[in-house]
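Problem 12. The chain below contains 278 residues. Write out its predicted structure in token notation.
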Amino acid sequence: MEISKLLCGPVTPTTSPKVANRSLLLDGGDLFSKYLDPQGFRIPKSTIIGHGNTGVVLQTGRNVVKLPLWRVGDTKDKSGLDYNFSFNLAALRHEKEVYERLGKSQWIVPYQDGGEATLVLEFMSNGSLSGYFAKNREAITPVQMLHWFLQLATAVSFVHNSGVLLNDIHDGNVLLDCNLTVKLCDFGAARIIASDEGLSQKHKDEVHLDIIDVTRIIYQMTTGEEGRMMSKDFGLEERWLGWIMQRSMTGICSGGYSDARDLIKDLEAEMARFDIKA
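Solution.
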């Protein structure tokens, strides 16, 4: 089934939802979801692998396709256009701009432009880092974990150097490719800095928050706890890599991380304790 035929359509959605087989809809529509593609057709449930606040994600062969979120029954604005679709389409366009700013990189899920209302990404066969770790926890060594943490920090450093602030690094946008290499995706919350401006001191707080997000993932994977990182009063420094997590929670003026490169150096120092190369 070609993506262009199933998913790519006019940017302005049709005024009424459609289904490929109306009898299925009358029978309860078990084959179809509540989500619509840009042409107004209900999307088959079997193709959907996830959704967020502004987009729905489908798998089509070796690719993943992200569409603006549009549900059956969404309300329309005064002009007759669906309000949610218009808002979510703008969010998708912004995300495409982020991918274009980042370009091709070993740290970014490969992207291609599938049309104004479609974002096409390469399917990552090993899913999210946290999901893979949860399924294979017993077989994963501390050395492998360190490699992943270092890759994640390096990926974030690359994004920052490209003039982009992530603003939302979470379990769902840190993926693993077929070689178990970290790749970043889902840049809906990211902020693009003007090319003539670049990251500067005025962006240090946002950079610091991105680094905290990275160390939060480190915390969750090393402790098995889903909550936020605790302070040293709760024994954080006594945990493995606790000194790194503690530094991430320290204010920048007090020695906290102001640049992802500093986190990379600390992770490389930890790897040296295992007598291995990064």
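Discussion. The longest strand covers residues 55-60. Students who got a different answer should revisit the alignment rule from Section 12.3.
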